[in-house]
Amino acid sequence: EPEVTQTPSHQVTQMGQEVILRCVPISNHLYFYWYRQILGQKVEFLVSFYNNEISEKSEIFDDQFSVERPDGSNFTLKIRSTKLEDSAMYFCASQGQAGRQYFGPGTRLTVT
Amino acid sequence: SQELEQSPQSLIVQEGKNLTINCTSSKTLYGLYWYKQKYGEGLIFLMMLQKGGEEKSHEKITAKLDEKKQQSSLHITASQPSHAGIYLCGASYAGNNRKLIWGLGTSLAVNP
Prior knowledge:
CATH architecture of chain B: Sandwich
Distance between the termini of chain A: 36 Å
CATH class of chain A: Mainly Beta
Radius of gyration of chain B: 13 Å
Helix content of chain A: under 10%
Number of helices of chain B: 0
Number of strands of chain B: 11
Strand content of chain B: over 45%
Structural class of chain A: mainly beta
Shape of chain A: globular
CATH class of chain B: Mainly Beta
Order of helices and strands of chain A: EEEEEEEEEEE
Low-confidence stretches of chain A: none
Number of domains of chain A: 1
Low-confidence stretches of chain B: none
CATH architecture of chain A: Sandwich
Number of helices of chain A: 0
Structural class of chain B: mainly beta
Largest interface: A-B, 28 and 21 residues
CATH superfamily of chain A: Immunoglobulins
Largest sheet of chain B: 6 strands, mixed
Distance between the termini of chain B: 41 Å
Mean pLDDT of chain A: 94
Strand content of chain A: over 45%
CATH topology of chain A: Immunoglobulin-like
Number of domains of chain B: 1
Oligomer: heterodimer
Number of strands of chain A: 11
């Protein structure tokens, strides 16, 4: 089965630092997503990305967040100035023209 | 707003027993996903349902989507300790290639 990969698996950072979470979607997919899950809570949608631009974003996805697909393969989520409440598992997903969203294994972000 | 309600929130069963988990939407959904998760870990895809009345099975797990596409049930036959975990439903509403909205999850424990 095709796989979405994410790096790192675990990131520890200090409050106020910038972090970049990386995802390699499935190669022929066109739609990309970031979700997050605070431990013990629901999975929450952050942003969707298509044709090199954001197609939808949630209220959580404020100015401290950004996404890009710099080289046609990686899909990154940047958090400019991390807060304690950004600690969560971040999931990347990709989707082809039809069918399911494939999820990566997640990056656990811990902000201290 | 779209919301998914899962019931029950938690479930403890004896090994070998059957069980059902429900996911109910306040609006007609486009597609419904079932995932399994160990606490604090990644999402394991189980099934995706898109057509009203659709039913899919994988090993001892069967998922159904009702005709109105507002409720899905996940049924496990002859439960085993390996079935223990958190079962999440996620739904898309506006067509394919759209964000998923998630339920809070059902925590399942299977006692040997």
